[in-house]
Write a structure and sequence with these properties.
With 300 residues, this protein is of the alpha/beta class. It contains six helices and 16 strands.
C-alpha cells in the first residue's frame, strides 16, 4: 500500500476511522463520574456537589441539552459551573434551558474565555502539542446576560469573590477567580486564610500556581475545567496536552494536591465547534460526595 500525503495508507485509514468514531459517537456519549472526597470534619453528613464545565453550547445540540437537564434528577446539594458555557452568540437561552432544573439548586460559577469571546478557528494539531502561549480572541459574547440569568436564579458569581454558605449544617466557604488562561485571574483580591468548616475554590483554568495559592490558604478542594481531559487521549498513555501548565496525568478527575487538599478537573461536556471530536475521552459531568476525613475513602 502506498502513502497518502506521506502517511502510510493503513495509518491514514485508522486515523480517519478514529476521527469518525470520535465525531459521530464519542462526543455525544456522556458520562457521569462519581468521586468521594474526604474533606469534611468528623461526623459531618455527606454533601453532594455536581460539577459541570465546558459545555460550549451552539444551536442544534438538543442531545446535549437533554442530557444536561437530566442531571437535575440527582438533586445535588450544590452545583458548581467552571465556565466555557458558550460557543455561539445564540447560545445564551440554550444554556439556561439546559441548566433549568439545576438553577433551582444552590449553585456557584466562574467564567471561562468562551463566555466572553467566541471560539476561533485553529489548527486541530494544536490539540496534540503543548500550549504555546498564543491567544486569539473571537467576537465578544453577551456574558453579562448569561451571568444575570445565573444570579437571578440565585447562583453565586464567584469572580474574584469569597463568600460562605450553609450546607448540611456546615459553613462552607466558596472562592473563585477569573480565567487564568487569559491571565485574568487575580488571586490577591481574595487571598487570606480559610476560617470555615470546609472551603472550595473555583477557577476555569487549573494553573498550578493558582491551585497552590488556594490550597496554601486552606481551601481543601479546587475545581476547574478547561483541559477537556486532553480531548484526544491515547489509550495507555492518557492526555497528550492540558492546554495549561497542569501535568498531563492530572488532565481530568480527582487527584490529591498536597496534604489534605484535592484538585478536581472536569473533562467537560463539549468541544470547540472547530474541533468537534473526542477520542478516548468521553464528555462528562461529575458528582462529588464530600465525606468526613476520617472515612478513609480514596480516589476511585
Amino acid at each position: 500500500m502506498g502513502p497518502v500525503l506521506g502517511v502510510p495508507l493503513g495509518l491514514a485509514v485508522a486515523g480517519a476511522g478514529a476521527g469518525l468514531y470520535g465525531w459521530a459517537y464519542e462526543r455525544k456519549a456522556f458520562r457521569l463520574r462519581r468521586y468521594d472526597v474526604p474533606i469534611l470534619p468528623p461526623d459531618a453528613k455527606p454533601i453532594t456537589v455536581l460539577h459541570v464545565s465546558d459545555m460550549h453550547f451552539t444551536p442544534g445540540q438538543e442531545w446535549k441539552v437533554e442530557w444536561v437537564r437530566s442531571l437535575g434528577a440527582l438533586e445535588p446539594d450544590l452545583v458548581i459551573n467552571t465556565g466555557d458555557n458558550l460557543a455561539s452568540r445564540r447560545a445564551n437561552p440554550i444554556v439556561v434551558d439546559a441548566l433549568g432544573p439545576l438553577l433551582d439548586r444552590p449553585g456557584a460559577f466562574v467564567p471561562g474565555s468562551n463566555d466572553w469571546f467566541l471560539p476561533v478557528a485553529k489548527n486541530p494539531a494544536r490539540y496534540l502539542v503543548p500550549d504555546d502561549g498564543e491567544r486569539r480572541y473571537g467576537e465578544p459574547l453577551n456574558w453579562n446576560e448569561l451571568r444575570t440569568s445565573f444570579t437571578d436564579a440565585g447562583w453565586l458569581d464567584l469572580t474574584h469573590r469569597r463568600t460562605t454558605i450553609d450546607l448540611g449544617g456546615l459553613t462552607v466557604e466558596l472562592g473563585g477567580v477569573s480565567d487564568a488562561h487569559l491571565k485574568a485571574d487575580h488571586y490577591d483580591r481574595i487571598a487570606g486564610p480559610v476560617s470555615a468548616d470546609v472551603a472550595i475554590g473555583l477557577s476555569h483554568c487549573p494553573e498550578p500556581r493558582l491551585i497552590d495559592s488556594f490550597t496554601a490558604d486552606g481551601f481543601s478542594l479546587v475545581m476547574s475545567g478547561h483541559t477537556h481531559g486532553g480531548q484526544l487521549r491515547v489509550p495507555g498513555v492518557g492526555a497528550l496536552v492540558t492546554n495549561c501548565g497542569l501535568p498531563r496525568r492530572r488532565a481530568r478527575g480527582l487527584t490529591p494536591w498536597g496534604p489534605g487538599a484535592w484538585l478536581h478537573v472536569s473533562a467537560g461536556l463539549g468541544t470547540s465547534p472547530y474541533a468537534p471530536v473526542r477520542f478516548a475521552c468521553h464528555p462528562e459531568a461529575s458528582l462529588l460526595t464530600l465525606i468526613p476525613r476520617t472515612a478513609g475513602a480514596g480516589v476511585p
